[in-house]
From TrEMBL:
<feature type="transmembrane region" description="Helical">
    <location>
        <begin position="6"/>
        <end position="29"/>
    </location>
</feature>
<keyword id="KW-0598">Phosphotransferase system</keyword>
<feature type="transmembrane region" description="Helical">
    <location>
        <begin position="36"/>
        <end position="54"/>
    </location>
</feature>
<feature type="domain" description="PTS EIIC type-2">
    <location>
        <begin position="6"/>
        <end position="440"/>
    </location>
</feature>
<dbReference type="InterPro" id="IPR004703">
    <property type="entry name" value="PTS_sugar-sp_permease"/>
</dbReference>
<feature type="transmembrane region" description="Helical">
    <location>
        <begin position="225"/>
        <end position="243"/>
    </location>
</feature>
<feature type="transmembrane region" description="Helical">
    <location>
        <begin position="330"/>
        <end position="349"/>
    </location>
</feature>
<keyword id="KW-0762">Sugar transport</keyword>
<keyword id="KW-1003">Cell membrane</keyword>
<feature type="transmembrane region" description="Helical">
    <location>
        <begin position="291"/>
        <end position="324"/>
    </location>
</feature>
<keyword id="KW-0812">Transmembrane</keyword>
<keyword id="KW-0813">Transport</keyword>
<feature type="transmembrane region" description="Helical">
    <location>
        <begin position="94"/>
        <end position="116"/>
    </location>
</feature>
<feature type="transmembrane region" description="Helical">
    <location>
        <begin position="145"/>
        <end position="165"/>
    </location>
</feature>
<dbReference type="Pfam" id="PF03611">
    <property type="entry name" value="EIIC-GAT"/>
</dbReference>
<dbReference type="InterPro" id="IPR013014">
    <property type="entry name" value="PTS_EIIC_2"/>
</dbReference>
<protein>
    <submittedName>
        <fullName>PTS galactitol transporter subunit IIC</fullName>
    </submittedName>
</protein>
Length: 440
């Protein structure tokens, strides 16, 4: 496949790419043509529905955030352009379209030698590794180092995907599914040690704060739909909205908490037979080996604990942006996609919303500094990709600008060049070797 054809396929977007990939994958697994078509289309329709719900949240929260900034005269000079624009910039650079073939090749080699259990079919989301590769290229002007960064980042996300799979099955109930999603999986590395710390804090270690526990304690007020509605009211009041606009925002945020789980269940309806077929094939051909299907972490964002914590993080994120000295980034485009940054903390904390909020506050707080630091690099990337800046002179993004892996890759790439990225690669490869060869 030529790079032009590959770029055309990428430009179709996740809601078209994924059904095609699911359809072809199902056929390879021996699924009947009709069932493969239904599986692919069901997943595609689920993604369309999920994106509609996210767009509803974005179109509601974005203007509210802007109104809050204007109302309180917050002095933030860098606009968070959001993940759709960031992904377009990442795939639009000289390195961007090479990310997918590099990642597919590495996945095949790792599977061949038993160094990963993850078969990633979420191909479109390799834009995250294109992002870090392009950042390093923009910083060093070394094209080969940018390609090497992409390859090493791929190793990191497969390590995280293999580590995450048991937690995902235990909490979300998704068998043989994991999430090699480079915006979501890194939070696992923070959540694990913090969970051990929280277990040693008197009071906090006994606090039950799952959605079920909250609803049991507070009854009607603990329901996720009611919580979404109340948060919408609070955000509307902080934005200085009139009564009509505040009530509309409240209904929309409440609707998101009802509709998003339904869209996720539609996605799972299409994925379940594929996951089972893949598992059966692996058991026949490779006895004793497990296979995880790598999917978009969108499958988790409809969970009540994820959504509740994410909505609570909206005002917290805005507050952090204002009070943290040295931050210049105004959270805007990615406020509605905060669930993707913190969703894989939730299984580690077993749905405890308080623990998730504490960890997410630390994570986003540090992330705002990373997003501030990479602002000149992302702005240069946008110019190199001929991206329409819409009059903004400084741009950044929470997805992936606030993710710690971005800071590590860019930081070590700047300080140690090839040696820094190589060090990350050695760590990731050693982790994959340990998880899949030694630790059975």
């Amino acid at each position: 496949m030529s790079l032009q054809a590959l770029q055309w396929f990428v430009d179709l977007g996740a809601s078209v790419m994924l059904p095609i990939i699911i359809f072809l994958f199902a056929l390879l697994l021996g699924t009947k043509l009709k069932n493969a078509f239904y599986a692919g289309m069901t997943v595609g329709i689920g993604f369309v529905g999920l994106n509609l719900v996210i767009d509803l949240l974005t179109s509601s929260l974005g203007p509210a955030a802007e109104a809050m900034v204007n109302r309180f005269n917050f002095d933030l000079h860098t606009i968070d352009i959001g993940w759709p624009a960031t992904s377009a910039i990442s795939y639009g650079t000289a390195l961007g379209s090479l990310a997918i073939p590099i990642a597919l090749g590495i996945n095949f080699i790792l599977l061949l030698f038993g160094l990963t259990k993850t078969l990633n079919i979420d191909v479109w989301n390799y834009w995250h590794v294109a992002f870090t590769g392009s950042l390093v290229y923009a910083m060093t002007n070394d094209f080969a180092l940018g390609l090497f960064t992409i390859a090493v980042h791929v190793l990191v996300i497969f390590l995280l995907a293999d580590l995450l799979a048991p937690e995902i099955e235990n909490y979300f109930g998704y068998k043989q599914i994991t999430f090699p999603h480079a915006a979501s999986a890194p939070s696992y590395f923070l959540a694990k040690p913090l969970d051990a710390v929280f277990d040693r804090i008197p009071g906090l270690n006994k606090l039950e704060a799952s959605p079920e526990a909250i609803q049991k304690r507070f009854g009607f007020l603990g329901d996720s739909m009611v919580l979404g509605t109340v948060l919408g009211l609070i955000i509307g009041l902080l934005a200085g909205y009139n009564v009509t606009d505040t009530m509309q925002l409240a209904v929309k945020t409440g609707a998101v908490l009802v509709l998003m789980p339904k869209m996720v269940s539609l996605l799972m309806e299409g994925l379940n037979p594929i996951s089972q077929a893949a598992s059966d094939m692996i058991k026949r051909r490779f006895p004793g080996r497990d296979l995880y299907i790598g999917m978009d972490s969108a499958l988790t964002v409809g969970h009540p604990a994820v959504l509740s914590a994410s909505l609570l993080m909206v005002p917290i994120t805005l507050l952090l942006a204002v009070v943290l000295p040295g931050n210049t980034v105004l959270p805007f485009g990615d406020l509605a996609t905060l669930p993707f940054l913190i969703c894989l903390m939730v299984p580690v904390f077993r749905g405890n919303i308080i623990r998730t909020l504490l960890a997410a506050t630390i994570y986003i707080g540090v992330g705002l500094y990373i997003a501030t630091w990479i602002t000149p690099l992302l702005t240069d990337m946008a110019m190199a990709a001929d991206f329409d800046m819409e009059g903004y002179t400084r741009i950044s993004s929470l997805v992936d600008g606030a993710v710690w892996t971005t800071g590590i890759f860019a930081g070590l790439g700047k300080l140690l060049n090839w040696y820094g990225i190589g060090l990350i690669g050695l760590f990731a490869f050693g982790g994959l070797l340990y998880v899949n060869k030694i630790k059975k």
